[in-house]
Write a structure and sequence with these properties.
alpha+beta, Heat Shock Protein 90, Beta-Lactamase, five-stranded antiparallel beta sheet
């Protein structure tokens, strides 16, 4: 701690109202200390981020400590979860994963440290540091870890899964808090803990993706206490996707390839924790993704088109195809319907397609609509065909958004 400043402490429960209480508490302390409005507003914003992260990820009681003079502000949050915050290198349009970046940009100092008695402290300072700095913290004893090696990790799919899981778990968490007065269900708390434990390997995975790496071996160091939570995380995320399908969550359900990565990661953590050797990832989509049926008249318009046309739903499943389009790729229209779009994409391009489509489902942004694209398609005989396609979006009263592509040979 610093000397010479006003110091106040408050203890908060892991509940949604705690963020509001924290903002008011910090604002009152800084006003009384004579802190200027700009510095006070920034400190309140960053406090809200730290406390919200504690509510969502730590799921323990929080201690909020505020120190201030008219020239500097220091805010610290202590919780009972040892997993340190990790910067998430999500896509530019992502709706989550910005908190640590915001803290780094707006604070003059940002620090975090695991505590010897379980838990951590995270702090920031705004303004010039006082002459007497805090004493160097006593290093926490080295924590034991469970090492997990993810062999042949599909980098793009893993990154897409991390981003989707972060968004859907956050929404499920908020919905659960809104519906309950006694706290978060234990299984949702465990799922959040497992995802937080994974975040240490996320930055490396995103760096691999930016470097154009398609598959790689990734080594993760996990707190042993988080390992039993991985099968719970798998089941909670599966349930969240089911809730999305019936409109209980706004974040869309995970695509089958994303579900497959989720199941594999959870399985590998549990297998290797028992001493079994790593098993490499093998594509095996969990393909029980079912959406409402699109109106027959809409599908018939595609099927009866004289040009190459194909329609797909939000699960990337082909729901209608014209004779001309089916002939281009060597299929009968009736056989092709029901397959997923990835069956027509060369294997080397499939992960990028699924990752990009997951990003579109999360934020609605894509540069691939309403303009002609050139890319290869996979013929039924295994050969690749150069194609041109124009992808558009459409709406159906019962099924919602779906996609229609005009296709021709390049």
């Amino acid at each position: 701690m610093y000397a010479g400043g006003t110091q106040r402490l408050v203890t908060l429960p892991p509940a949604p109202d705690s963020a509001r209480q924290a903002r008011r508490f910090v604002g009152d302390v800084l006003t009384a200390a004579g802190v200027d409005a700009d510095r006070r507003d920034t400190a309140v914003l960053l406090t809200s981020e730290l406390v919200t992260n504690g509510i969502v990820h730590a799921l323990t009681e929080l201690q909020l400590i505020v120190e201030a003079t008219s020239s500097w502000v220091r805010v610290e949050v202590i919780d009972g979860n040892p997993n340190l915050p990790q910067r998430r290198d999500f896509d530019d349009e992502a709706m989550t994963g910005r908190g640590l970046e915001m803290l780094e940009l707006l604070a003059d100092e940002l620090g975090m440290q695991p505590l010897a008695d379980e838990g951590k402290r995270v702090w920031f300072r705004i303004g010039a540091a006082p002459a007497e700095h805090e004493a160097a913290p006593v290093p926490a004893p080295a924590a034991s870890v469970t090492t997990v090696v993810l062999r042949n990790l599909p980098v793009a799919l893993y990154c897409a899964w991390q981003q989707h899981a972060s968004a859907i778990l956050r929404e499920a968490f908020i919905a659960a808090l809104d519906d309950r007065t006694e706290g978060v269900p234990d299984d949702l708390a465990m799922a959040n803990d497992a995802m937080s434990a994974l975040s240490g390997g996320t930055s490396e995975a995103f760096a691999l993706r930016e470097g154009g790496v398609h598959n790689a071996d990734l080594t993760l160091s996990l707190p042993p206490s988080s390992v039993p939570h991985f099968p719970v995380m798998r089941d909670v995320l599966r349930r969240c996707s089911a809730m999305s399908l019936v409109g209980q969550l706004l974040v869309p359900p995970a695509l089958p390839e994303i579900q497959a990565v989720r199941n594999w990661v959870a399985g590998e953590v549990m297998r290797q924790a028992t001493g079994l050797p790593p098993m490499a990832y093998v594509e095996d989509p969990d393909d029980h993704f079912v959406l409402d049926e699109i109106a027959p008249a809409t599908l018939d318009a595609v099927r009866n088109a004289k040009v190459g046309m194909m329609a797909a739903d939000r699960s990337n499943r082909i729901v209608a195809v014209s004779r001309a389009a089916a002939d281009l790729v060597g299929w009968d229209p009736d056989e092709l319907e029901g397959h997923r779009i990835v069956s027509l994409i060369p294997p080397r391009l499939r992960d990028a397609h699924v990752a990009g489509f997951t990003q579109y489902l999360l934020d609605g942004t894509s540069s691939h609509f309403d303009r002609w694209l050139e890319m290869p398609a996979l013929h039924r005989d295994g050969s690749e065909i150069p194609m041109r396609l124009l992808i558009g979006r459409a709406q159906d009263d019962s099924a919602g958004e779906f996609f229609v592509a005009t296709i021709e040979r390049a």
